[in-house]
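Researcher: We plan to redesign the surface later, but first we want a full-length starting point. Tokens attached.
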């Protein structure tokens, strides 16, 4: 049975490969008019098909109604709509994998059956929330809501784009028009410049984009889809100019624009490059100022910014050289357009990436003259695009949902995964395949009582999928916080002393460079971990205060919270929440605790990854943990993981000799080799350490175990040898044998490998790691829920490595024990 399952998997991959590859040369174009019965010609000359006429498109369930009403002045495509009273989906079978533009038209058509302007609904596509509880009557938006997104159709969704329309409780949802168009491969490349200038960035793969601005500088009126080979809209820049008097429009004949390597009209039509805003009067007197545009954006999201340039004012090469700023920060210094574009009137573009942190809701773009002499004292910009990127909770609409209940996510995601896999197969081969897989799964699940929702996924999965997404929406707890203590309060020394029975040795949890950590009970009954600074510690009062200030700001369910502090009588005491199950390491080896199941292990890592992701991106300044390891991942009584000992690095003492050597000693085996070489700390150093943690969790052995044969001492080196052979399972914890799903392990191994890349730029972000771990978890959830199964890997390795329970104290010094807030 196991073998036949594996066989089926191979077949499915093979078929998948064949199907995808035979289709890569066709681009998708769906132009759909919802609720129409006849094709509709739009103003720009395109013909939109009725939604029921397209054979590559299904709508489900059928509980929907058509409304239409040809009003004067309303474009034909907006004058009909399909109205849904329950959550429903449109499923498009695309010919091509990869990114697709998804353009949606909503218009509350007046009719006598429904009041569409009072409808409240959400929209999602391939698992990404596009619109969250929108209603026309709320915003004072124009009556036509037009949205453009970029959604990836992946192999794992088997070439489907699934658009969900989810009415809010007792409300309705509707849609008027849908456009889906393949994004040509080169249009969204992966190289982006990070603003503020820093570590080079790769565009994350599994994000959705929403076009928030697409602007043609100096173009006057809107450039309609007619003038764009990919039917994009380009707006005028006038409303965004901060000081219109500083700019003047310039234009040339669009036919004179030239496109060189990599740039084509797919990037932007020649109409965009043929017009620009230039500095007004710059040529007359030697004025120095910037042209500035301001774009309002939603805070708390990452943004992709593309600037289009074309030298349409210079008469010689290298005449036009100027500076570009984004958010008051230098983005390009001395941009020589004609050199970069390889000629005058040649099109050129640059991509940037920036995050708009909480507290600011603007993106500023400025161009201004270079301070160097000998150049035209002017600057110009031809076009601009700003795209919002989906956040780690896969949303493009709504705040950073750092407090989303993870069980909710898990539930809806695992259902989604099942459904994506099950529902998205098509074609004759695949139907046969489906039946086979169904048989196998039936056999596999026969003994296991499935929860109701899983069971009902069955063979008519679509309504369930929608139902669950519906739950996802209604239970979305964006912005709500579950932290119950008031953080960072002052606690008197007498209370601390009472809490620890005058620092009773029996309550000692651990000790480190900073001091000792005790378990204690506050007057209000709260059990806490109390870290008492060593008076002779090198960590002075200033650092202590900075730490309090910073830690008080950090609130996240996967970070150990600071509850209070005490600085009476020259004491430096920090009070943290107590983590009942102690450090993760203790659950892996070197103790008598029962082994964790694979699912528990991955869930713990998911929690820790969320905490680190928050440190890296969730607060206004990136915080690098710098000491990620299994003793700094603490577990509460439910085995939920929290990251401890964070932030110290940023405010810790400068890297004087003692400190460096302490760090190296304490965290040997976790240290990013690049950081070691270049002494340059980035958040990717944490990613490296996290990769080591992942291996430690998989293999249940210390990062460094000097008692092992030489090639096995360092887990990162040893495990990568097996990972490269595709035989990672051979060195995994024997307790996991037989209950790790192959696909889950494959994803896990790949992720760890990427985290351990030599070059920091090649390592994924914590957000990507998180995504991959959740993916690994879903696979596990879908086929092997608990440890007692015989599914998963069937063959027990012929050679089980000697994993001795090594006395942790011999491996690393002070930092190995206890609840460790130590440093
Ligand atoms: C919407 O805009 C109109 C004018 O355009 C204004 O009279 C009305 O008060 C606005 N409504 C809301 C809810 O802001
Ligand atoms: C360019 O600016 C001039 C005035 O300086 C104005 O008359 C003209 O309409 C503008 N053209 C566009 C396309 O905005
Ligand atoms: C759009 O293209 C047509 C020619 O196809 C041209 O006549 C028209 O001026 C263009 N519109 C704009 C706004 O540039
Ligand atoms: C950039 O500077 C302008 C004015 O100098 C200011 O209003 C704006 O808030 C600044 N923007 C950012 C993102 O710092
Ligand atoms: C242009 O803007 C940048 C960033 O806001 C600023 O640093 C620079 O001084 C400005 N240049 C001029 C000439 O005003
Ligand atoms: C987010 O923006 C802040 C400043 O606005 C910056 O310090 C931080 O590095 C940015 N984070 C990422 C992940 O780019």
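Model: Full-length starting sequence:
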């Amino acid at each position: 049975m196991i073998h036949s399952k594996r066989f089926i998997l191979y077949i499915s991959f093979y078929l998948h490969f064949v199907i995808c590859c035979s289709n890569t040369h066709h681009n998708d174009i769906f132009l759909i008019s919802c609720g129409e019965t006849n094709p509709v010609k739009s103003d720009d000359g395109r013909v939109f098909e009725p939604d029921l006429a397209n054979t590559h498109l299904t709508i489900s369930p059928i509980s929907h109604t058509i409304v239409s009403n040809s009003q004067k002045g309303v474009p034909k495509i907006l004058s009909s709509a399909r109205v849904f009273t329950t959550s429903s989906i449109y499923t498009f079978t695309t010919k091509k994998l990869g990114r697709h533009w998804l353009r949606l038209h909503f218009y509350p058509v007046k009719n006598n059956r429904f009041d569409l302007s009072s409808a409240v609904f959400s929209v999602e596509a391939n698992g990404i929330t596009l619109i969250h509880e929108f209603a026309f009557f709320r915003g004072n938006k124009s009556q036509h809501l037009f949205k453009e997104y970029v959604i990836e159709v992946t192999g794992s969704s088997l070439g489907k784009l699934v658009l969900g329309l989810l009415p809010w409780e007792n409300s309705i949802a509707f849609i008027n028009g849908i456009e889906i168009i393949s994004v040509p491969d080169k249009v969204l490349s992966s190289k982006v410049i990070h603003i503020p200038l820093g570590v080079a960035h790769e565009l994350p793969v599994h994000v959705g984009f929403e076009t928030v601005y697409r602007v043609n500088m100096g173009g006057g009126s809107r450039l309609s889809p007619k003038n764009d080979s990919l039917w994009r809209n380009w707006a005028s820049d006038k409303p965004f100019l901060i000081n219109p008097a500083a700019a003047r429009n310039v234009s040339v004949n669009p036919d004179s624009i030239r496109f060189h390597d990599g740039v084509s009209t797919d990037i932007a039509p020649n109409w965009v490059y043929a017009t620009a805003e230039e500095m007004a009067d710059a040529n007359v007197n030697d004025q120095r100022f910037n042209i500035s545009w301001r774009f309002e954006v939603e805070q708390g999201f990452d943004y992709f910014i593309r600037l289009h340039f074309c030298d349409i004012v210079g008469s010689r090469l290298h005449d036009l050289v100027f500076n570009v700023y984004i958010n008051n920060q230098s983005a390009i210094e001395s941009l020589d357009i004609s050199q970069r574009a390889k000629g005058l009137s040649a099109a050129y573009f640059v991509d940037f990436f920036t995050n708009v942190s909480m507290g600011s809701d603007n993106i500023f773009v400025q161009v201004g003259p270079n301070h160097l002499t000998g150049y035209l004292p002017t600057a110009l910009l031809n076009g601009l695009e700003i795209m919002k990127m989906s956040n780690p909770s896969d949303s493009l609409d709504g705040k950073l949902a750092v407090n989303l209940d993870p069980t909710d996510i898990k539930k809806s995601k695992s259902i989604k995964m099942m459904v994506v896999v099950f529902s998205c197969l098509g074609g004759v081969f695949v139907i046969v395949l489906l039946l086979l897989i169904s048989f196998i799964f039936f056999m596999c699940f026969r003994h296991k009582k499935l929860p109701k929702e899983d069971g009902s996924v069955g063979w008519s999965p679509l309504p369930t999928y929608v139902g669950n997404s519906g739950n996802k929406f209604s239970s979305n707890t964006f912005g709500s916080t579950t932290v119950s203590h008031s953080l960072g309060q002052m606690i008197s020394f007498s209370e601390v002393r009472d809490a620890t029975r005058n620092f009773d040795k029996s309550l000692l949890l651990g000790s480190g460079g900073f001091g000792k950590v005790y378990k204690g009970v506050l007057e209000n009954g709260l059990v806490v971990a109390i870290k008492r600074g060593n008076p002779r510690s090198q960590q002075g009062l200033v650092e202590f205060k900075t730490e309090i200030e910073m830690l008080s700001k950090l609130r996240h369910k996967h970070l150990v919270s600071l509850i209070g502090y005490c600085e009476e009588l020259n004491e430096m005491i920090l009070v943290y929440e107590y983590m009942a199950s102690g450090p993760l390491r203790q659950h892996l080896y070197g103790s008598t605790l029962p082994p964790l199941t694979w699912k528990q292990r991955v869930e713990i890592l998911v929690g820790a990854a969320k905490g680190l992701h928050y440190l890296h991106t969730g607060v206004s300044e990136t915080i690098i943990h710098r000491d990620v390891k299994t003793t700094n991942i603490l577990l509460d009584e439910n085995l939920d993981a929290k990251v401890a000992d964070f932030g110290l690095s940023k405010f810790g003492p400068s890297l004087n000799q003692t400190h460096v050597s302490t760090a190296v000693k304490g965290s040997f085996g976790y240290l990013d080799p690049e950081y070691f070489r270049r002494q340059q700390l980035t958040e990717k150093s944490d990613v490296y350490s996290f990769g080591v943690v992942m291996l430690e969790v998989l293999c249940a052995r210390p990062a460094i175990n000097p008692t092992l044969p030489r090639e096995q001492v360092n887990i990162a080196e040893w495990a990568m040898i097996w990972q490269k052979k595709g035989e990672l399972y051979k060195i995994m914890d024997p307790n996991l044998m037989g209950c790790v799903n192959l696909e889950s392990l494959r994803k896990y191994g790949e992720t760890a490998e990427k985290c351990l890349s030599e070059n920091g730029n090649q390592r994924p972000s914590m957000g990507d790691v998180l995504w991959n771990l959740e993916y690994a978890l879903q696979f596990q959830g879908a086929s092997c829920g608990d440890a007692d199964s015989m599914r998963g890997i069937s063959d027990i390795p012929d050679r089980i490595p000697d994993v001795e329970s090594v006395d942790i104290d011999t491996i690393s010094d002070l930092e190995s024990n206890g609840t460790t807030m130590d440093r």
